[in-house]
Amino acid sequence: MDEIDYFLHGDDMQFVEIELDPGEAAIGEAGSMMYMEDGIQMDTIFGDGSGQQNGIFGVLLGAGKRLITGESLFTTVYTNKGQAKRKVAFAAPYTGKIIPFDLKKLGGTMICQKDAFLCAAKGVSLGIAFQKRLGTGFFGGEGFIMEKLEGDGLAFAHSGGTVVERQLAPGEILRVDTGCVVAYTPNVDFDIQFVGGIKTALFGGEGLFFAVLRGPGTVWMQSLPFARLASRIFAAAPVRKGGGGSGGEQGGLLGNLFNGDD
pLDDT tens digits for 140-171? Predict the structure, then answer.
């Protein structure tokens, strides 16, 4: 398929602007569109819009895969119906970086954390990657199921904080916090390992397990997983004294935040 042109805007709150030739199309996660120029037609469909689902069963199966991986049942297709190039932009849902993946150069497949998909060239398929080891599935941070992006076009994933790309040599091992793994190529061996030592496990503050990545292959890591950010916000939020529901005189948690209650 033809390569699409794109430009990443911003630093900590990024969005990607995709330029479509006449007749060219891109797919986006539901709710991710920021703006589009006149001449682009938007159409919402079941599944990932890759054209690889045959019949009603195939369409439902593709939509079901997206639901399992944490994405919406629907994908929106943006097609340039004009006679000149037009642009459509997609924004990340939280602070972090957008990572472009050229699937053709990466062997046609990329494994990502759940809910990482943002947008892609039409023809890219979003599927499921099952963890083969029970330990990895239970303690690996992303469970048994991760996202599998397949195709020969560009795909974009979002992550939290700063992103670092690391090339692993054959046999090279990298131990990473389980929530910091954003994506990796399929030839990377992904496993989990106990941090070792009861005192370290209980009081080290780094969790009970590491993600162990063994090369060869490429790994992308994020400095601020969304779960870590959410837990810090939750821990710092004021707690309403006296218990009760959220519909009290102070309006619950939001009331405490605006009224300055301790």
Answer: 444 457 888 999 999 999 999 999 999 999 99
Which of the residues in the chain have pLDDT under 70? 1-3, 46-73, 130-144, 195-208, 239-262
Q: Are 209 and 137 in contact (CB under 8 A)?
A: no
CA distance to 230, 234, 243, 255, 262, per residue, from 251 (Å): 21, 17, 12, 4, 14
Residue 94, strand partner residues: none
The radius of gyration of the chain's CA atoms, rounded to the nearest angstrom, is 21
Residues 162-200: b if buried by 16+ CB within 10 A, e if exposed: ebeeeebeeeeebebbbbbbbbbbbebbbbbeeeeeeee
The pLDDT of residue 261 is 52
Distances (CA, A) of 124 to 43, 77, 120: 17, 12, 6
- Dihedral of CA atoms 30, 132, 139, 128 in degrees, nearest 10, equals 0
Per the CB < 8 A criterion, the answer to whether 21 and 80 are in contact is: yes
Q: State in Å, rounded, how far the first CA of the chain is from the last one.
A: 57
- Beta carbons of 76 and 20 less than 8 angstroms apart: no
Nearest to 27 by CA among 71, 84, 85, 93: 71
- The phi, psi pair for 139, rounded to 5°, reads -120, 5
pTM for this predicted structure:
0.76
Architecture of domain 5-237: 4-Layer Sandwich (3.60)
